[in-house]
Amino acid sequence: MLFENQTIQIAGAQPGFDFPVPLTEKYRPQSIESFIGLEKPRAIMRKLVAKPFQSAWIFKGSSGTGKTTLAMAVAKAIPAELHHIPSQECNLATLERVMRTCNYLPMTGFKYHLVLVDEADQMSPAAQLYLLSKLDSTNFPPNTIFIFTCNSTDRLEDRFLSRAHVLEFSSYGLSQDAAKLLEAIWDKETNCAADRPNFARIVKDSANNVREALMRLETEVMAAV
Fold first, then answer.
1. What is the pTM of this model?
2. C-alpha–C-alpha distance, residues 97 and 101, integer Å
């Protein structure tokens, strides 16, 4: 997952309450522009947000590259009514229920439905077969956008892949920006000028996985304060 490097936005926080949250949530991006890296997926999603249309997308990439978080940012920007289906719940019964909802107008204040299926490569064969018919142009639910996330497309049928736009998510080339992000977060979270960790090393040891790097940084912050 790739995180915002400026404004702190805490999901679910309530005025008057101070609930501690992990850094991975505290610095989770809330908008398309608040990501580091992902230039191509971000550019394409900006255009989709500007002119939404019925479509299916596959966000493919390793864990921690921001696939789910970017999908949620897209839903917020459209704005779209979000139907988030975790991989373990992506079965025929769940999909039929969500599709019935998508055949109605979105809730007040929303322009589209956005169906987000995490780890789509782990869905049941029956669920994938059901979606094949729904992603066909003649049976596509109205005012609906599908976003499927996965680490690999090996378990997805060619027929399924042919019905969706595939976007590759990569952490390549973001090590410098990620290190700067960790440094900025360190400065926000601590008053410790001495014994600053090696931010570039943390990013490297995390293989440019910003979510993992933030978790490593969190242990350093806890040791410093």
1. 0.86
2. 7
